[in-house]
Amino acid sequence: MPVGYTAMRPRAWQRVLPLLASLALSLSFAAHAATFPNLYSVTVNQDPAATDQRAAATRAAFTAVLVRVTGNRYAGSDPDLAPLINDAARYTTQYGTDRQGRSVVGFNATRVDQALAGLNVRIWGQERPLTLVWAAVDDGQGGQALLGSGDAPADATPATVDLLTMLRTELAAVADERGLPLVLPQLDAEDLAAVTVADVSSAADDRVMAASARYRADAVLIGRLRPGLVGNEVEWLLLKDGERRMLEGTAVRDGLDAVADQYASELSVVGSATTSRLRVLDVKTPDDYGRVMSYLEKVSSLQSVDVESLDRGTLTVRVAARGDARVLERVLALGGVLRPDSATQVGGALVFRIASPGTR
Length: 360
Prior knowledge:
alpha+beta, Rossmann fold, single chain, 3 domains, 6-stranded mixed sheet, 11 helices
């Protein structure tokens, strides 16, 4: 993202001013924002019936990219997007095959976004909420277990192991399809001391949320999978921003689709860039300044960032961003660097405070 820096003339920190520009450019701070990797690159299976494998794979991959970037799971059947899909090769920057013979296709993010903006289609940027998934499986024969980031429990029944494997595989596939950053609990001693299969199965909010704090996720998705009348069924519950929402559907993908749809509606933007003013409070040290600026220059929806002033610990920045102020505030809050301060009003600007390192 191109970032412009204007002259800074605050009335404080006169002795450290010569260092600030170099700090902002040279220091790299690890932001906690969940940035979906390779958002504009997709791996697809070859179509054995296609006479032109490359063209078919490119169209299929571009359709998948549009689902991710627009947040619309039905992008492939949207007549407004059909001309783009038919002209997918125009946006391609990479084409190859992996060891499994699948096509790996990459697309130019700027050109894709410009094409979507030209059609007045909403764009969901690469900064996305991180969702922690707690899932309990019940094999219907007395076997129960939690899904974790590692191997299945040593005492899990074969039927339970099969369910855990299926669940993990499908979660990964749908998350990749929708561009949804997920994390599974480690299920180490700390987790197992804090939460049980029964807690997750009964959606014991307090215990699950307490166990989730260490993962610094933006939301918690709780699932309970068990045999149903026709195949396996899952009940999904989303905990986010102090609210609990039971999600419709009983398939594994239903929960993730509902979550992705909600995130896209909250964070996607449409239209050209508009100018907004940000004020960040408690910028007390050169490290604070470097942390804020390093974060802002990584946010994909910001097309420019210009520093206006630094006065008595308040950093004022003018940004050009896609979307309205409400969406911009939500996007900037994802990184774990800036915390909205709605209690402080400063001349119509969006006001933030620096979040403590290691928090979200």
